[in-house]
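Mods, move this if it's the wrong board.
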Amino acid sequence: MATAADTAAMRRAVSLAARGLGFTSPNPVVGCVVTDASGEIAGTGWHQRAGGPHAEVHALREAGERARGGTAYVTLEPCDHTGRTGPCSRALIDAGISRVVVAVADPTALAGGGAGTLRAAGVTVEQGVLEAEAEAGNTAWLTSVRLGRPHVLWKYAATLDGRIAAEDGTSRWITSPEARADVHRLRAGADAVIVGSGTARTDDPQLGVRGIEDAVPPLRVVVDTEGTAVRPGARVLDGTAPTLIAVALDVTAEAPEGAETVRLPRAAGRGLSVPALLEELYARGVRSVLLEGGATLAGSFLAEGAVDRVVGYLAPALLGAGPAALAGAGITTITEAFRLDMTEAVRIGPDLRITAVPATAPKER
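Not the wrong board. Structure tokens:
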């Protein structure tokens, strides 16, 4: 049974892991705290970038000889394979760690098994400490592993009556500067940001990250079924980040300079196949997606069961008319409503940010 000291150390490891968000993909974020034989913290670390040393290695280097006979608290089961770095299970054994406390078991066939290797070497292993907190911090990577597609976070901004624009189409700005700055935090944590052709035409978004130090710009994806929405001079072609334009298989036009084209099958109804798009992005190493617009594209993702989290920014304003935040989701009656569990409600400037997840989790493949 976890002690108060175990919980405190693991909570710090979870906090450390969060520092890697936006930098480690396609690998997970991981945090590690090493205590010496007397229980004092001797070293801390987190996975800082893909291909770099893992969290355990950073923490063990800081701890040095104090790690011998100590405990390692790790948010994800130590890896048990040699890739661009060596197995963390072996590093812990070689450092003389006597006990390892793990929050979440590694679900991958390639890297999993570290706990077994540690136990075989005589190391005490305990699992499940702050599992829910560690899972929440690593939800994008865990979703991608379990479902075989990127984790999808749908973000929208609306008035209290659910309008994302006025009747004449104007939408700048519904929410406050504080809320818009918070959106850049979401972008900085995503591998790709996606908009549809309507948003590309109406807003000409740049889809970059501003105000986040050392942020890695996400891949900018425009779902442009007919290949007509992104014209030369569009802001997504500014060269500050890679841009991918997804068009239908039968569209012959090439992407304008500054972007790459990918051709995908059409959906049974309108637009492109959402599963095909996510499969393509996954093959490119994308493990987390921020879906920003618009209403019809969001409806297509929702209809396919491909929305894993929703973040809505609600402004204290009313419009009475104009487009709604969601359209084309295939919902015709109240019994078909897409039910969510709210996980957070936070005031951002004058606005309210609500975070929710599907009440029924998507099925694993």
